[in-house]
Amino acid sequence: MAAGPGLLWRAREYVDRAARQGPARLALTVFALVVALITALLSAPWATAHGERAPFVDAFFTATSATTVTGLVTVPTGEYWSIWGLVVILVAIKIGGLGVMTLASLLGMAVSRRIGLTQRLLVSSETKVTRLGEVGSLVRTVIVTSTALEVAIAIVLFPRLVLHEDNVGTAAWHAVFYAVSAFNNAGFVPTPEGLEPFVSDWWMLLPIIVGVFIGSLGFPVILNIANHLREPRRWNLHTKLTLSMSVALLLFGSVVVAAFEWTNPGTFKPLDWAGTLLASLFAGIMPRSGGFSTVDVGEMHEGTWLLLDALMFVGGGSAGTAGGIKVTTLAVMLLAIVAEARGDRDVEAFGRRISRDTLQVAIAVAFVSASFVLVAALLLLAMTGLTLDVILFEVISAFATCGLSTGITPDLPDPAKYVLAVLMFIGRTGTITLAAALALRNRRRVVRYPEERPIIG
Question: Which residues contact 11 (CB under 8 A, 6 or more apart)?
């Protein structure tokens, strides 16, 4: 009887030690093992609708896309995979979404153990979690919170899908699939037509919009708001920055997409004003990492693609299901620009001063992320001969784990698909581990060189 608790205690100690000694290795190892397992399951004959083994590249790409909650596909999800294959994909999405939030919070706690006593007390007062020994309670909280939100979304979607499917069982299955896929910002759809039949349907699309938005905020924000729901003044700086930037990007993206696509006969022109408003709102939030689409992205104007490139690259909130460099990274860099333009010594927001270390990490994350996108785009240009606009869109979508596509992914050569798969993996784990690794490497030097300013600009 004592073996069980003893084994659990040893496992907790191992996770605690791994998170402190090698947080990056822990994140990478866990995700790599999950991708390998899902690939093996999707390679089985029973996973496909036609009963034959899927090519390894398709199984591996789909497993990576589902585990990293991206949504890019090389084969049509609703047609190619059997019901059991779809179940495997849904489980991978759930594991991937939970894994991101849990590991990111775990790495955040690892970082908090390296900071000073005063800062640690502040972290304790704001997050209620400071010890790696509380990993078990953290995981339970993440699972309960995310599952409750997914169930709520599914309940709202179910009646609408019953009217559409005319089959209670199928409607229930699709409601659950869409709910899990939406909250985890995965972008997978269980039917061949996806969400295009609902392009003007507020009942169907609004819950998905809400699910994607909440999931993209990140678990620390969700927890902080839940703890101080009636006291917004007690929200921490991270929550305020995430919410303000998320709303600003949503409004900006929706308005600009509407302006570019209003007269496009391939996208918004056939819609009435209410349908255009909904389609614009939907298109404005999906680059946050949602990945769903109600119109053909391949028919959009090149200017819209460029806007979506920028929004996808930024992504959503930290320690959540969204990808990209994160909205707080953008916020910190914008605040630094404003402070420099004003001649202010400190970078400040909402009555708080942002440390120089945070700014340095933000710059590093943005630069390294842009470098990955650049290298991957160059590789795909060399492999395919396609134009830069479509290549860049697909590459940023993969790195930002968004899943929006111009439609070229299924026709790419196998080496290019592997490049995108690796990029999805890097995009999901890379920014988290890079930020944690840089923070953990922070050190004080006894001897400092004389200061000198090189000419900038």
Answer: none
Half-sphere exposure of 124 (CA within 13 A, CB side): 12
Neighbours of 178 (CB within 10 A): 27
Residues in the chain: 457
Dist CA 290 CA 308 (whole Å): 12
Q: Looking at this protein, which amino acid is placed at residue 284? A: G
Q: Phi, psi at residue 163, to the nearest 5°?
A: -65, -35
What residues are paired with 347 via a beta bridge?
354
pTM of the full structure: 0.87
Residue 269 has what DSSP assignment?
A: T
**3-state per-residue secondary structure call for 278-345:** HHHHHHHHHHHCCCCCCCCHHHCCHHHHHHHHHHHHHCCCCCCCCCCCCHHHHHHHHHHHHHHHHCCC
Alpha-carbon span 161 to 169, nearest angstrom = 10
Give CA–CA dist 279/214, Å, rounded: 19
Residue 391 corresponds to which tokens in the numbers above? Answer: 């290549």
- The DSSP 8-state label assigned to residue 307 in this structure reads H
- Amino acid sitting at position 376: A
Tell me the two tokens of residue 21: 């000694």
pLDDT tens digits along 46-76: 999 999 999 999 999 999 999 999 999 999 9
> Which residue in 145, 122, 124, 146 sits closest to 134, CA to CA?
124
Query: In 3D, which of 253, 349, 260, 250 has the Cα closest to residue 309?
Result: 253
For the stretch 339-397, pLDDT in tens is 999 988 899 999 899 988 889 888 988 998 999 999 999 999 999 989 999 999 999 99
Q: Which residues pair with 354 in a beta bridge?
A: 347
- With beta carbons less than 8 A apart as the criterion, state whether 377 and 419 touch: no
DSSP readout, 328-396?
HHHHHHHHHHHHHHHT-SSEEETTEEEPHHHHHHHHHHHHHHHHHHHHHHHHHHHHH---HHHHHHHHH
State the residue for tokens 């969700």.
Answer: 222
- C-alpha distances in angstroms, 208 versus 47, 111, 175, 282, 403? 27, 33, 10, 9, 15
Instruction: Tell me how far apart the alpha carbons of residues 126 and 234 are, in angstroms, rounded to a whole number.
Output: 8
Give the residue from 313, 262, 258, 260 showing the smallest Cα distance to 287: 313
- Cα 333 from Cα 328, distance rounded (Å): 9
